[in-house]
Specification:
With 448 residues, the protein is of the alpha+beta class. It has four helices and 29 strands. The chain has a five-stranded antiparallel sheet with strand order 14-15-16-17-29, with no helix packed on it. The protein has a four-stranded antiparallel sheet with strand order 1-28-27-26, with no helix packed on it. 35% of the residues are buried.
Length: 448
């Protein structure tokens, strides 16, 4: 009898486990059998970087309704889609970001511009304006538009510039010529907070979301001040080189505060050491007017007088993501949505614009196979980010011609200033003039 040897394979290794699944393939993973694996992977990384830039279309929708410049935006805590906007025409709109439509409208809420907005507990919305009034509105959804009256009016003695609500208690803070604390159940301010030697106009005020008894404010005299509402007084105050236009507390690090400055930069400070910033963020070519943290605390958005919206990585001071359109004018307010997937901006042209936080992100339902492919491309770009061509494509950003020219001019001016200081130092007595670090130039004085 002839003996026959049979090669036997397990069917489970060569057949799909379920109907519709792809047929499994067997591969020899010996690197000697794949001499071009690295070259193929680099080509895939290059294609992934190109695909990202090809599909980078961040703009989603412009929401109309205001007839004048938008001054302030705020999102509703505990929701993903509710955003309120206040304008120079005195009107207030509440938008649904998910459905991309207007859900509530209050005409002539204030005489003059609406300078501050914040949501209170429930469906309440607090607004303040230059007419020296604070008004509490009910913004619960309505089927029809009616002439609405405020639930409550709080009267002040001077125009208000900003307002912010406490995270859990029924109190809120306002900024005018002083910082005041108000109770929703009382008609007059319950506390006045001011620094003994301060004479400035307070332009913005914000409660710390984690340490809720800590309050921060910025003023027209280039100051940043910390208050403790338990003691009812100002604790620390620093005077900076130029004035700040906006401040925002980090949602994940209670001691980290972000300031948007008139000198085209943004600064993060650790409130335990206010003598110098922890990081300087440089890219804007004009005054930075607004800033807001992502709920993750890993990135933040800023809007400036240069008509651009920029998204920054926390701790990385250069090369932010840049958003712009032909019709968008000077950006006065920017916020992240609560799910960190979208950015909302308000500008002088009266439109509220919705942008994707990741310009190349695909919206809608994504299958498991698509998700795996996206994650694979992301890992390829991360692994090959130091490659010359891959890095060049990933970093490339288109800028409007006016912004590009202004950036070149600013670079030339800064270089001329650096050369001038270097020459002055060369021609002075040794040790008399020492170079000063950039971070040490920001804060001029600190008081406590």
């Amino acid at each position: 009898m002839v003996k026959i040897s049979v090669l036997q394979h397990a069917p489970s290794a060569h057949l799909p486990t379920r109907p519709g699944d792809p047929t499994p393939t067997s591969r020899n993973l010996d690197p000697l059998m794949h001499p071009f694996a690295r070259a193929r992977e680099r080509t895939r990384a290059l294609n992934a970087a190109k695909i990202e830039r090809m599909f980078a279309k961040p703009f989603l929708r412009a929401l109309e309704g205001h007839i004048d410049a938008i001054e302030v935006l705020c999102r509703k805590p505990g929701t993903l889609n509710a955003v309120a906007s206040g304008s120079w025409d005195g009107g207030i709109l509440v938008h649904d970001i998910a459905e991309q439509k207007q859900v509530h409208r209050i005409l002539d809420a204030h005489k003059g511009k609406v300078s501050g907005l914040c949501f209170s507990q429930g469906n309440g919305l607090l607004s303040c304006g230059v007419d020296t009034n604070i008004k509490l509105w009910d913004v619960s959804p309505r089927d029809e538009e009616v002439q609405q009256k405020p639930l409550h009016i709080f009267s002040g003695k001077s125009p208000f510039n900003s307002i912010d609500h406490h995270r859990s208690d029924a109190i809120f803070a306002t900024a005018s010529n002083i910082v005041q604390l108000w109770d929703e159940t009382k008609t007059a301010a319950i506390s006045n907070l001011t620094f003994p030697t301060a004479m400035e106009t307070v332009t913005s005020v914000r409660f710390n979301p984690s340490e809720t008894s800590v309050l921060g404010s910025i003023g027209s005299d280039r100051s940043f001040t910390l208050y403790d509402i338990r003691s009812g007084k100002a604790e620390r105050r620093v005077t900076m080189q130029m004035r700040s236009n906006a401040l925002a507390w980090s949602p994940t690090l209670p001691t980290l505060v972000l300031l948007a400055s008139e000198d085209h930069n943004l600064y993060t400070f650790d409130v335990r050491k206010l003598s110098s910033p922890t990081q300087i963020y440089k890219a804007h070519v004009s005054a930075v007017m607004s800033c807001d943290w992502s709920p993750t605390g890993l990135e933040f958005v800023s809007g400036g007088w240069d008509r651009t919206v920029r998204i920054w990585k926390e701790g990385k001071g250069t090369r932010p993501e840049v958003y712009h359109t032909k019709r968008m004018q000077r950006v006065s307010s920017t916020i992240f949505t609560a799910d960190a997937r979208f950015v909302v901006s308000g500008s002088d042209d009266g439109n509220v614009r919705i942008w994707k936080a990741k310009a190349h992100e695909r919206l809608g339902v994504i299958t498991a196979r698509e998700r795996a492919a996206i994650e694979y491309r992301e890992s390829l770009k991360e692994r090959w980010r130091y490659d010359r061509e891959v890095g060049k494509i990933s970093r490339a950003r288109h800028l409007p011609k006016a912004v590009h020219q202004a950036a070149k001019l600013k670079e030339t001016m800064l270089e001329a200033q650096r050369v001038k200081e270097e020459r002055r130092r060369k021609h002075t007595r040794a040790g008399e003039s020492k170079p000063k670090a950039e971070r040490k130039k920001v804060v001029l004085a600190e008081q406590s």
